[in-house]
Design goal:
The complex is a heterodimer. Chain A is an all-beta fold. In chain A, about 0% of the residues lie in helices and about 55% in strands. Chain A is built from no helices and eleven strands. In chain A, about 35% of the residues are buried. By secondary structure, chain B is mainly beta. Chain B is about 0% helix and about 60% strand. Chain B is built from no helices and eleven strands. In chain B, strand 9 and strand 10 form a beta hairpin. Chain B is globular. The chains are: A mainly beta, B mainly beta. Chains A and B meet through strand 5 and strand 10 of A and strand 4, strand 5, strand 9 and strand 10 of B.
């Protein structure tokens, strides 16, 4: 079974649309993360939730809104998509207090 | 200047060569991670270090806390080792990971 899964794997959409990416982990972890990887392969943290509470909120546009309905899920909703949002978005999870993070397979978002 | 610097950015090797990728960081850390990202995009954690040295198969990771430096070594490299290798540090002040820009490794047969 996949430990950290993301859907969809690929997402192609037009500027101005609203889209969501979903992430689920079955590892029993209580902390989840969203990372953005740009075209230069540079990974940057966007958000982190611990027990459904936001604990890291980097400087990202407020068009990006994470939602954690429960500890096993962290979804990312993006409003009014822009060309610069094109990237690969990775979800990850860990147990609070433990340092190991487990990454999902990534969602490649292309905004045209 | 990024808090985590990797070198080299790109590395091409012949099969069988010994490979070293370096990572330097400028902040206090509680742990350092080495990650591998294959062309398909998935990210796999290779090592998590807070001191000393770890070995897994042909991969060896070392860290020198005083010098704020870590190295990832690959012995007897193989084309399937071709991937981007990413160094990431967890700062002592928080739970987030800060990433290096990655090293693109290509091993030719």
């Amino acid at each position: 079974d996949t430990a950290v899964s993301q859907t969809p794997k690929y997402l192609v959409t037009q500027m101005g649309n609203d889209k969501s990416i979903k992430c689920e982990q079955n590892l029993g972890h209580d902390t989840m993360y969203w990372y953005k990887q740009d075209s230069k392969k540079f990974l940057k943290i966007m958000f982190s939730y611990n027990n459904k509470e936001l604990i890291i909120n980097e400087t990202v546009p407020n068009r990006f809104s994470p939602k954690s309905p429960d500890k096993a899920h962290l979804n990312l909703h993006i409003n009014s998509l822009e060309l610069g949002d094109s990237a690969v978005y990775f979800c990850a999870s860990s147990q609070w207090g433990e340092l190991e993070q487990y990454f999902g397979p990534g969602t490649r978002l292309t905004v045209t | 200047k990024n808090e985590v610097e990797q070198s080299p950015q790109n590395l091409t090797a012949q099969e069988g060569e010994f490979i070293t990728i370096n990572c330097s960081y400028s902040v206090g850390i509680s742990a350092l991670h080495w990650l591998q990202q294959h062309p398909g995009g998935g990210i796999v954690s290779l090592f998590m270090l807070s001191s000393g040295k770890k070995k897994h198969g042909r991969l060896i990771a070392t860290i020198n806390i005083q010098e704020k430096h870590s190295s990832l070594h690959i012995t007897a490299s193989h084309p399937r080792d071709s991937a981007v290798y990413i160094c990431a540090v967890r700062e002592t002040s928080g739970s987030r990971l800060t990433f290096g820009e990655g090293t693109q490794l290509t091993v030719n047969p």
